[in-house]
Amino acid sequence: MLIIGENIHIIAPKIKEAVNNRDTAYIQKVALAQWNAGAQVIDLNIGPQKKTGVEVMEWIVDAVQTAIPDVVLSLDTTNAAAIEAGLKKCKNKPFINSTSAEEERLAAMAPLAAKYGAKIIALTMTKSGIPVAAEDRFSIATDILLPKLTEAGVPVENIYFDPLVLTVAGSQEYVPNAVEAVRLMKLWDPPLNTVVGLSNVSNQVSHENRSLINRTYLVMLMAAGLDAAIADPLDRELMRFMRIVETRDDSTPVGRLLLHLYDTTQAMEPFDPSVVDMNDPEQVAIYKTVRILKNEIIFADSYLKM
C-alpha cells in the first residue's frame, strides 16, 4: 500500500501560515515527520494560489526536496502553471493531483503528465458531479479518463484512478460504492491503479471517531484492491491496521477480526458478527464502524454508544 502523506494541506491553519510566511523550517518539519512515519510520497496542497502559485510551488518543492533528497512529491493544486513549475523542479517523477473528466481540467493537466512523465491522479467526476453508483464511477474512468489520458500520451501505468470517497456523515450511500468502484477498476485488463483520499470518509465527523472510521475503511478498500491512499501517516493506529493486513498478522484478537473483515470484503461475503468478542470494546467499535461504512445502519455521531 502506497501512502501519500496528506498533512501539508493549505486548509490547515499552521500550514497556511507557513506558506504565507514562506516558513521553510516548518514545512520541512511536517514533511520529515510524515516521511519518517512511513509515507512514500508527500502531497503538497497549496490551494488554487491564482496570483502566486508558481512562486509558492517552486519554494515548497525546493524546501521539501532539500530536507528529503529522495522524496517523491504529489503536486496538489488546480493551478496548471504552478503544477508545471513544480514539475520542472522535481528530482523524482512526481504525481499530479489531479485531473477530472471535465474537459478543461483534462486539457490542462494531461499534456503536463505526458510531457514530464509524471503520474496523475484522475478523479471519477464530471461537470455533473460524482455519481453514487460504483458502475457509473467506473464508466467515467474507462470511457472518458482512460482514453483521453492515454491519447494525450500518458501511459496507463502512470494513471491512478480516484473513485472519490465522500463522508459517511451526509453522503453515506457513497461510501460502500467507492469500495466497489475500486473492485471494478481492479477487474479491468490490465488492472487499473487506484487511489483514494482516505480522510474524506470522516469529514464532519467528531474528532474522536475519525481515525477509527478512516482505518476501518482502509481495510475494506485494501480488500477491494486499493493501491494507494492519501492519508495521515502520523496516525499510528491507521498504520497499525495497514500493517496487520499487509503481514496477515493474526496474533491478536483484533488482528483476527481485521483479517476477517478483509477476507469477507475481498470475497464479497457478509461480515460474520459471531467473530466479534462483544466483551472487547475495541472489537465492538470496529464492528459498529463496519456497519456504518457498509450503510447497514444510519450514521450518527453517537453511533458507538448505540
Short synopsis of the structure:
With 306 residues, the chain is an alpha/beta fold. The chain has helices spanning 13-21, 24-37, 53-67, 80-89, 103-116, 134-151, 174-187, 207-224, 236-247, 253-266, 281-293; strands spanning 2-5, 41-45, 73-76, 95-99, 119-123, 159-162, 193-197, 228-231.
Helix content: 40-55%
Give helix and strand order, one letter per element, not per position: EHHEHEHEHEHEHEHEHHH
Could you name the ranges where pLDDT drops below 50 across 5 or more consecutive residues? none
Q: pLDDT average, as an integer?
A: 97
- Main sheet: strands, sense, barrel: 8 strands, parallel, barrel
List the SSEs and their pairings.
Blueprint: E1 2-5, H1 13-21, H2 24-37, E2 41-45, H3 53-67, E3 73-76, H4 80-89, E4 95-99, H5 103-116, E5 119-123, H6 134-151, E6 159-162, H7 174-187, E7 193-197, H8 207-224, E8 228-231, H9 236-247, H10 253-266, H11 281-293
Parallel strand pairs: 1-2, 1-8, 2-3, 3-4, 4-5, 5-6, 6-7, 7-8
Helix pairs in contact: 2-3, 3-4, 4-5, 6-7, 8-9, 8-10, 8-11
